[in-house]
Structures are given as structure tokens and as C-alpha cells.
Amino acid sequence: MKAKKSLGQNFLKVEKYLNKMVEAGELTSTDLVIEIGPGHGDLTEKILLTGTTLICIEKDRELIPLLEEKFHNHIKEGKLQIIEKDVLETDPYEITKGKPYKIVANIPFYITGAIIEKFLSEKHRPEKMVLVTQKEVAERIVEKDGKSSILSLSVKFFGEPKFVTIIPKGAFVPSPKVDSAIVLINVSENINKNLEKKFFDLIHAAFAHKRKQMRSNLVIRYSENKVNVIFQKLDLDPKIRAEKIKIAQWVEAAKTLL
Ligand code: SAM
Question: What is the pTM for the complete model shown?
């Protein structure tokens, strides 16, 4: 069957990297895992070897019968459920029946941001996410160059990201244009909803115009007085750019807006 470019189908075929994903998830037989886009089932097979219970969500209808045949026994034993659906339209609370879960997935690049945003902002968040992303995206998430962004701060608000390893493009069939990486996000349990709203309002305002200094961006959205309180409380250089400010400082700044 021909790989569908429109569905981001680049199948990971090198065992070493499939094993690294499972290791990063620290899977045990009592875990419940969601795999997004099982594809041909190579990662699925590795996840099932840990004895964990698995729910796969696959959008490509044509792959479903192949997966059902390949994993017939696991499905019969109740260890695997395959759902044919667009992951962005799923309700994790409903499919996990409210149980704690982890995500381990080689996700399609065209919806990397949407998947991360969806699962981190859900009420029923995963405990961990082990994802394959483009290398550059993984580096942005962990702020490899020391600069924060809306993406890295969004992830860090909800959890702790870790760069696991690079996957060279040749490890996939067909090969994508760029290298990939495995990124692990350990997700925090308790998030203050009011603070979450203030935090996201604040970072969107601060990063609104890339060339502007943070102060000039903030005064478009907030009163001079509020902006002064933030700068005084965090003892910030008035000329600082948003990308220089770290997550803990953003959280402190958001608290002044509660
Ligand atoms: N897990 C396999 C592997 O590691 O080789 C396949 C990974 S491939 C990068 C992405 C998979 O996600 C494909 O099987 C594709 O059909 C599926 N997919 C694409 N868009 C999806 C969506 N919106 N919801 C669920 N699955 C999707």
C-alpha cells in the first residue's frame, strides 16, 4: 500500500528508535497507553510487548483491517483497542474511561502543534507524552538555543520536556526531508485554570510582534500600570525581549494579573 503524504505517513522502521520510545515512556504492564497513528503497527508491537493496555487511534481507514488482523490476539484478549478516527476529534476522557494514561506516538508532522496543544490543554491530560517530531520542533520545545517561544512556554507551563534522541531521516520509509527527534514531556498534575488563562493571554500578547521589545507588546494589551508591576516585580530590563524570559518568570508575571 502506498504511503499517504497527506496523512504524514513516514513509517519508523529502525528497531533501536522504536525501543527508545518505549523506554522513554517507562511503560509497565499496569499502564494504559494511547498511540496516535499506529500505521503498520511497528511501534504498536513494541508497546504491546511491555504488557501495557493500548488504545490506537488511526485516521486512515485502509490501515484498520491490516492492524486488526496483525493484532487479532491482543484485541481478543482486551489488551488492544483500535479506533478509526481523527485524533483531534477524540475525547481522551471518554476513550480512557477517565483512567490515567500515557501517549507514545510517532505523530504526523502536519498536526504536531495541534496534537500537543490538544492533549496538554485537555481536562484529562496524559501523565507523559513520548512523541516523534521534526528535530527543529523538538529543539524549539526544549529551548536548545536558549530562546523561549509560545510553543516551548506552552509545553513548559504544563510539564517538563526532555530531548531524548535524534532520529535520522533515513530511519523512516518513505524518508522525510528533515531529521526527527524523540521528545518526552512529563506532564504536571495540577494546573490552576485561572492562572492558565492569564499565562496564555500574557505570552500571546508578549510575542505578538516579533521585532518589538516585550514592553511595547504588552502595553497594547495591558495598562501601563499593570506592565510596570510586572517589570518591577521581576526586576526586568525595560528593553528585554520576550524570548529571553524563562518559564518561572512568566508564571510569576501571570500571577500579578490574577
Ligand atoms: N506509528 C507508525 C510508525 O511509527 O511507523 C506510523 C507513523 S506515521 C508518521 C503517522 C500515522 O498517523 C499514520 O499512520 C497516519 O495515517 C496517521 N494519522 C495521520 N493523521 C491522523 C489523524 N488526524 N488522526 C489519527 N491518525 C492520523
Answer: 0.95
